[in-house]
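Handoff note, outgoing to incoming analyst
You'll be picking up this chain. Sequence as last confirmed:
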Amino acid sequence: MKGHEEELEAENASLKTKVEELQVTKTWMLSEGAKLLAKNIHKGPEMTAAVAAVNNAMSVMGVNSGLHSGYAHALKKKTPYADVLLLNRNAAEELDAAVARFDSLTFSVVEDLPKLINEPLSEIKKALFFASGGSLKE
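Most recent structure output, in case you need it:
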C-alpha cells in the first residue's frame, strides 16, 4: 500500500511539473512567441516578395501614367512644368515615410494575445478567429 501511495505521489509531482511547463510555454507563446512569429512573417521572404510585386506593378503604372501625362503636356505646351498633374516633389519623402511605417508595423491581434494567458484554448481560438474575420467551427 505504501509503495502504491509513493508511486501516486511521484506521478502527481510529475503531472504538476508538466502543467507548470505547459503554463510557461503558453505564456511565452502568447507574449513572445506570437510577436516573434509576426515579426518573422513581416520580415520574411514571402512578405518581401508580395510587397515587391505590388510595388513593382504600382511603379509601372506610375511610370505609364507619368509618361502619358508628360506626353499630353508636351503636345499641349500650355501648362507650366510645376503644374503638371501627378508631379509630386515630395514623392521621395513620402516613400521613406511609408517604408518607415511598414518597418514599424505592429499587429493588434498579436499585441493583444498576452491578455489571453489565463484563458482556455477555446477563448484564444475565438479571439484569433474573430480578429481574422473567420468563424470558429467546433
